Amino acid sequence: MNRRRRIYEGKAKILYEGPEPGTLVQHFKDDATAFNAKKHDVIDGKGVLNNRISEYIFQNLNDIGVPTHFLRRLNMREQLIREVEIIQLEVVVRNVAAGSLSTRLGIEEGTQLPRSIIEFYYKNDALGDPMVSEEHITAFGWASPQEIDDIMSLAIRVNDFLSGLFLGAGIRLVDFKMECGRLWENDMVRIVVADEISPDSCRLWDMKTNEKMDKDRFRRDLGGLVEAYSEVARRLGILTESDNPVAKSGPTLVKG
Ligand code: AIR
Ligand code: ASP
């Protein structure tokens, strides 16, 4: 493989310099981490599935006018994205109680929330991504009040879109995390959806059985992660019916 300049390496992805100025290549690894990387494993085929699922979601968001960093998928593990300045916040949208919300507030997992709730976490591994309020965000200058408004309207649009998309696939969108970036276009700055949206960053439960189809399979040692992600891809129409998700060579993907 030719030598490309590596811009950044995270826990599940690598960013390389792109073919043109203002672009980057986002590479999906098979690594899975949880609890701030205290738990780590390599799961064959996860990166390929997340690349494809995230492509599908971001392309659809672009198509309905929700701005994202996504340009196009390049190959099994890589996509071409616009270079943005990542805002150091994890934006979590919740529809159903689960995970840290259930732990923190003692609300039973699976309880429908009275309305969708948006939370912000400061992206800082050393601190374990602590939850922060708008007060902290504006006081410390991580984002301006206008940017927070833009982020919240994007989060609501993404939540509405994803809830409907997964509903059509018999999957409940319990919660998800998204990241945003600042995109410069001439003298204008726009907030766009960045990073990835995949079963690594969403909680997805089968509508009928409540079976988990997301990274909680890894976090909670349930096994069957690749099978679950493959099933998500299959239901979204990304994998063909005949593909064997656990074949040695990894999942076969539909062209296009
Ligand atoms: N998330 C948060 N940080 C990293 C990720 N992937 C996602 C989880 C879950 C949601 O944010 O995958 O979908 C809420 O996570 P938690 O742990 O706060 O309940
Ligand atoms: N990926 C993050 C970590 O390594 C958080 C998570 O998804 O649980 O801690």
Automatic annotation (TrEMBL):
Record's keyword annotation contains ATP-binding: yes
Catalytic reaction annotation: 5-amino-1-(5-phospho-D-ribosyl)imidazole-4-carboxylate + L-aspartate + ATP = (2S)-2-[5-amino-1-(5-phospho-beta-D-ribosyl)imidazole-4-carboxamido]succinate + ADP + phosphate + 2 H(+)
Any one Gene Ontology BP term: cobalamin biosynthetic process
Keywords carried by this UniProt record: ATP-binding, Ligase, Nucleotide-binding, Purine biosynthesis
S-adenosyl-L-methionine in keyword set: no
Pfam families xref list: SAICAR_synt
Domain called SAICAR synthetase/ADE2 N-terminal: residue spans: 7-235
Enzyme Commission numbers on file: 6.3.2.6
GO cellular component, one term: cytosol
Pathway field: Purine metabolism; IMP biosynthesis via de novo pathway; 5-amino-1-(5-phospho-D-ribosyl)imidazole-4-carboxamide from 5-amino-1-(5-phospho-D-ribosyl)imidazole-4-carboxylate: step 1/2
Any GO MF annotation of the entry: ATP binding
Residue stretches in coiled coil: none
Transmembrane region(s): none
InterPro entries with a match to the protein in the record: SAICAR_synt/ADE2_N, SAICAR_synt_PurC, SAICAR_synth, SAICAR_synthetase
The family this protein is said to belong to: Belongs to the SAICAR synthetase family.
Protein name per the record: Phosphoribosylaminoimidazole-succinocarboxamide synthase
Organism: Terrihabitans soli
Lineage: Bacteria, Pseudomonadati, Pseudomonadota, Alphaproteobacteria, Hyphomicrobiales
